[in-house]
Specification:
Blueprint (H helix, E strand, L loop, with lengths): L2 H19 L8 H11 L6 H12 L4 H23 L8 E2 L2 E2 L1 H4 L2 H21 L7 H15 L4 H10 L7 H24 L7 H27 L9 H5 L3 H5 L1 H18 L8 H12 L3
Antiparallel strand pairs: 1-2
Helix pairs in contact: 1-3, 1-4, 2-6, 3-4, 3-9, 3-14, 4-6, 4-9, 7-9, 8-9, 9-10, 10-13, 10-14, 13-14
Amino acid sequence: MSFADRIPAYLERTEQALERALPDAARPPQRLHAAMRYAVLGGGKRLRPLLVYATGEAFAVPPDRLDAPAVAIELMHAFSLIHDDLPAMDDDDLRRGRPSTHRAFDEATAILAADALQPLAFEVLATALPLAAEPATQLRLVALLSESCGPNGIAGGQALDMEAERRQLDPAELEHMFRLKTGRLLRASVLLAAHCSPQITDAQLHRLEVFADALGIAYQIRDDILDFTLPGQDLNSDAVKAKATYPGLFGLARAQARTDQLLDIAIDAISDLGASAGALRWMARHTMLRSE
């Protein structure tokens, strides 16, 4: 059975774990809890939880040790999307084909929902029963997730993104922004799972970091390519040129060439892991070949 065949089971496992972690919408304050559930359970590819389980497979980590990291990373992702969509940030009315959280509820409720999801992610890691006897492991996981969402992660990347509008960034500046805004959470998905393995070595962790760093940057470039190739998109429009994107700044051909190069770097980084890393290789290729 390939990893693709196992994905439905992992997705079902993730949904059930998220349901257990989120507060009941019928419990006061109902509106806040409903907004949290709306933001988290409203679809999505669950790429980050799948990366958690794929990394776990590479090191024979039992799935029950991975459930908490998978849930925590998806809660943090939902937190970041709510904030990204707010009028003060990207001002997006839609998310995953339906009203964004601040449109479905209201701006204040959306902010509170995001603010509640972030600490809930840390609570999940700190209270996970399969890890309860390993406080050092729990502390490391909390530290990794903290780094991914702070000034050296999502928050810093979003700040750079806002500052970059209508600026001519060079490739290194653009990729640094991508590394923080998008890549750090993908990196955390891989490293959280890796640190759940008692046998993980420093050399293996380094290879996984190279893999995740390349994948995170490539993921964002691929996202930009898909946005630019949507029907009706005009590469010369002012709206497009104002965005700090790889195809907008350097053209589609160069953007595609860079994603291909980054995919090669990612795959090469985990070559020494052998057949056990098959799921990670599948995830990397699938991410780069996706059409949505």
